[in-house]
Amino acid sequence: MRQLVVLYDAQCGLCRRFKEWLAAQAPARNGQGGVVRLGFVAAGSTEARQLYPGLDHAATLREVTVVADDGAVYVGDRAWIVCLWATREHRATAVRLASPAMRPVARAMVQAAAGLRSWNREGDRGDYADGCDGQCDRQG
């Protein structure tokens, strides 16, 4: 695997923040002499529909979706795990989260993020990520 394309909700501040964070991470080696490159496409966009006509594009707006260059599609917690796997610093965490014992933790994390996302959608009560004071970045 040489490239992953992350389909993210461009209207969601939390999703945009995750995209920016992920884009800033150092890539991990792909085991074939290269690195895993990350690309980003707005979910539901014309570009996404042209690149991936077989996807359920309404679903890609509800859950983060990642498409690998080998055709594999990752959704939900699997998508978050493969995104972490593509980074040098967080690959070991991804491997742990992918284990059967830790998958419920990964699912819970994704559900918590989805809850924040739906609660803080733009046009509703504001946007958590855009209004963040940055304290969360310094604690981890």
What distinguishing features does this structure have?
47% helix; 140 residues; alpha+beta; globular
Walkthrough of the structure:
With 140 residues, this protein is an alpha+beta fold. Helix content is 47%, strand content 14%. It contains 8 helices and 4 strands. Strands 2-1-3-4 form a 4-stranded mixed β-sheet. The longest helix is centred in the last third of the chain and has 17 residues, at 103-119. The chain is globular and about 35 Å long. Mean pLDDT is 81; it is low at 122-140.
In short:
Helix content is 47%, strand content 14%. It is an alpha+beta fold.
Chain-wise SSE layout:
Blueprint: E1 3-8, H1 13-23, E2 37-42, H2 46-51, H3 57-62, E3 65-68, E4 73-75, H4 77-85, H5 91-98, H6 103-119, H7 128-131, H8 135-139
Parallel strand pairs: 1-2
Antiparallel strand pairs: 1-3, 3-4
